[in-house]
Amino acid sequence: MFNLQGRVALVTGGRRGMGKAHALALAKQGAKVVITDINVNECELVADEIRAAESADSRPGRELDVSCFNMDVSNKVDVDAVFDQVVEKYGRLDILVNNAGIYESHPFLELTEEQWDRTISINLKGEFLVAQRAAKEMAKNKYGRIINIASIASGGVGVGIAGGAHYTASKGGIIALTETMAIELAPLGINVNAIGPGAINTPMADATKMPKEYMDAILAGVPLKRMGESNEVAAAVVFLASEEASYVTGATLYVDGGWLAA
Ligand code: NDP
Q1: Residue 206 pLDDT > 90, yes or no?
Q2: Are 82 and 69 in contact (CB under 8 A)?
Q3: Nearest-CA neighbor of 238 among 36, 95, 89, 55?
Q4: Does 130 or 61 have the greater pLDDT score?
Q5: How many other CB atoms are there within 10 angstroms of residue 158's CB atom?
Q6: Structural domain of residue 54, as residue ranges?
Q7: Given a cut of 80, is residue 58 above it in pLDDT?
Q8: Ligand 1 centroid distance, CA of 207 (Å)
Q9: What is the CATH number of the domain that holds 64?
């Protein structure tokens, strides 16, 4: 199960954090992986890690192929230029993990228009631009898997973040986008799902500089009593990217240690 050999996958924001884990996990299942980020040098380090892991893997029929591109998801010219090169190189795209995102804390009453626009532009418009171009490529083969990374703080489930109105609005938009894309793209053989991670141990989580007492209070309400690790979200990505997820589309899978159940 979950064999991705022969599939071509593109991950955005893949130089670190969860994006890196998604790239590693997809490669481990046999996919050819295209790692993109706004810092391509660090993507190359992830590619080296994949190559090192793959060279130690003796499973038959494995074709190692990993490449890196600089791509700002909020810039359509950048997105099209990278996709042109990917299609030229691989001739197809099967899997997209729309992962790139930013979190910048600003109290609602002080939130400026520029701060609002920056978050919406990267988190929401970025996922739209990349998903639309990916879907156009996938439609040519009548096959695709698009995984949009949202958040547990996407609205509708009772989790807000003080200082994150712009962020939660962007993530709520991603779930709405996912549901409508799933309907429109189903006839084209493309399944579209979202993942809503809970509190995951990544550089972004560190950068929020959330006071320890606040994080402790959150984790006290999480049944598994700890933050999640990136590879635990990557496992959900692998499932949604696989043939085995053939009857799953338009869904949001929360990987949250039970937070929403508590
Ligand atoms: P990280 O900050 O560790 O990784 C995100 C990556 O995206 C970084 O390398 C970042 O680069 C890159 N990026 C930022 N802006 C752009 C852009 N315009 N174009 C391309 N790449 C860009 O975050 P996480 O791994 O924690 O988060 C991954 C996803 O998961 C995000 O969408 C996030 O919102 C979501 N998420 C995270 C949670 C958590 O607890 N960590 C919880 C719920 C959702 P740079 O560092 O230079 O900005």
Answers
A1: no
A2: yes
A3: 95
A4: 130
A5: 9
A6: 8-261
A7: no
A8: 11
A9: 3.40.50.720
The widest CA-to-CA distance across the chain, in whole angstroms, is: 58
State the Cα–Cα distance between residues 260 and 222, nearest whole angstrom: 8
**C-alpha span between 177 and 8 (Å, rounded):** 23
Determine the pLDDT at residue 255: 98
Q: 2 lies in a domain?
A: no
Domain count for the chain, please give it: 1
Cβ 181 vs Cβ 192: under 8 Å: yes
Please tell me the distance between residue 14's alpha carbon and the centre of ligand 1 in angstroms.
8
Q: Is the pLDDT of residue 257 over 80?
A: yes
The pLDDT, as a whole number, for residue 211 is 85
Model-wide pTM > 0.85? yes
**72 within domain boundaries:** yes
Q: How confident is the model at residue 86 (pLDDT cuts 50, 70, 90)?
A: very high
According to DSSP H, which parts of the chain are helical? 17-28, 40-55, 76-90, 113-119, 126-141, 165-185, 203-207, 212-220, 230-241
What is the per-residue pLDDT for 61? Answer: 66
247 is known as an active-site residue:
no
In a domain, 145, yes or no: yes
How far is residue 22 from each of residues 28, 104, 185, 206, measured CA to CA in Å?
10, 23, 23, 19
Give me the pLDDT at residue 200, please. 97
Pocket of ligand 1 (CB under 6 A): 12-13, 15-19, 37-39, 71-74, 99-103, 122, 126, 149, 151, 197, 199-200, 202-205
Would residue 76 count as lying in a domain? yes
Residue of minimum CA distance from atom 23 in ligand 1: 204
Within 10 Å of residue 37's Cβ, how many Cβ atoms? Answer: 26
CA of 100 to the centre of ligand 1 (A): 5
